[in-house]
Amino acid sequence: MKEGIEIIIKYLPVFLPLIVIELALALTALVHVVRHPHYRFGNKAVWILVVLLIQFIGPVLYFAMGRGDE
Q1: Staple 46 to which of 29, 40, 41, 42, CB 3.0 to 4.6 Å?
Q2: DSSP readout, 1-68?
Q3: What is the per-residue pLDDT across 35-69, written as a single tens digit (0 to 9) for each?
Q4: Three-point CA angle 65, 26, 53, nearest 5°
Q5: Whole-angstrom Cα distance, residue 67 to residue 16?
Q6: Contacts from 7-13 at CB under 8 Å and sequence distance 24+?
Q7: What does pTM read for this prediction?
Q8: Which of 56, 68, 69 is nearest to 28 (CA)?
Q9: Largest CA distance in the chain
Q10: Torsional class of 41: left (φ above 0), alpha (ψ -120 to 50), beta (otherwise)
């Protein structure tokens, strides 16, 4: 058990920025999905699931393919 904690502490400086970037990207995409009613593909429920369940790729997919005209 002690080895597992040591590994987490060792790699925390690498993973912490990635975690913060993922949360910020997901939150930004989620807010955009909720506020905008127009999508190129799918509907609001589908995009919320994609953004929340497919990490890193989901928010990028939304901004690249799902976001409709403003």
Answers
A1: 42
A2: -HHHHHHHHHHHHHHHHHHHHHHHHHHHHHHHHHH---BSSS-HHHHHHHHHHSTTHHHHHIIIIIB-
A3: 988 888 888 899 899 988 998 898 888 888 887 76
A4: 80
A5: 28
A6: none
A7: 0.74
A8: 56
A9: 52
A10: beta
DSSP assigned state of 69: -
Residue 14, amino acid: V
Strand partners, 67: 39
The encoded tokens of residue 43 equal 């509907």
Q: Which tokens go with 65?
A: 């393919």
Give the torsion through C-alpha atoms of 26, 28, 30, 34, to 10 deg.
180
